[in-house]
DNA sequence: TTATATTTGTCCGTATGTATG
DNA sequence: ACATACATACGGACAAATATA
């Protein structure tokens, strides 16, 4: 289990760091529209955080319309919204 | 079956109380090596907890090598390899 | 083979309590 | 008080594996 670079002491809270990381993956096309994101459980393992923290990160993407979540199924990359969703 | 004594407000969380109870059963020989443990459904009824809580208890035993689980079948007492540590 | 029931596996939604800065 | 994070718990839903009819 290779944990990603998350610094709990950085000014940016972990859930935002994770969100930024996932957004970068989407923008690089590593996560294409319609494709599933890692499950909450996988995110907790990948980043070494609690489930609530992983969920908070997903909430950021959801609020930006970058992903949608299906109960019991997972989260998926939204069908190409508009380009230029920089921070 | 009669529900076991689980106190949701004790310092020890329910899943650990259940794990301790099952471990005691194994150590008393009431659950012999190779014998099936109660199903998750039965554990929820016996202890009055949610399925996830019963699963968390089983996970404790699995991590200690006391049991093994077969998908679609159930969990079984491991063939005594080494004695588990006391808590 | 097909169908059904049981059991475990994997998800997400939500809530509470504790702790820290 | 508030935001953040972790641990724990309950619930619902569906998939996958297994066993049996």
Structure explained in plain terms:
Two copies of one chain form a homodimer. Chain A is mostly helical. Chain A is built from three helices and two strands; from the N terminus they run αααββ. Chain A has helices at 14-27, 40-47, 51-63; strands at 67-70, 74-77. Chain A has a two-stranded antiparallel sheet. In chain A, a hairpin with a 3-residue loop joins β1 (67-70) and β2. The longest helix of chain A has 14 residues, at 14-27. The first copy, chain A, is globular, with a radius of gyration of 12 Å. The chains hardly touch.
Main features:
homodimer, 87 residues, mainly alpha, two-stranded antiparallel ribbon, 2 strands, disordered C terminus, DNA-binding
Oligomer: homodimer
**Termini gap of chain A:** 29 Å
Provide the helix percentage of chain A.
40-55%
Give me the side-by-side strand order of the main sheet of chain A: 1-2
State the low-pLDDT regions of chain A, or none: 83-87
The largest sheet of chain A is: 2 strands, antiparallel
* Beta-strand share of residues of chain A: 5-15%
Mean pLDDT of chain A, as a whole number? 84
- Beta strands of chain A, count: 2
Please tally the helical runs of chain A, counting DSSP H or I stretches of 4 or more residues: 3
Radius of gyration of chain A: 12 Å
Q: Sketch the topology of chain A as an H/E string, one letter per element.
A: HHHEE
What does the overall shape of chain A look like?
globular
Secondary-structure content class of chain A: mainly alpha
């Amino acid at each position: 289990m290779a944990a990603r670079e998350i610094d709990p002491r950085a000014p940016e809270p972990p859930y935002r760091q994770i969100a930024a990381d996932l957004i970068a993956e989407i923008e690089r096309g590593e996560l294409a529209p319609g494709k599933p994101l890692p499950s909450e459980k996988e995110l907790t393992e990948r980043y070494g955080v609690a489930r609530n923290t992983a969920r908070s990160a997903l909430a950021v993407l959801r609020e930006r319309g970058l992903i949608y979540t299906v109960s019991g199924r997972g989260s998926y990359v939204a069908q190409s919204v508009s380009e230029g969703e920089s921070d």
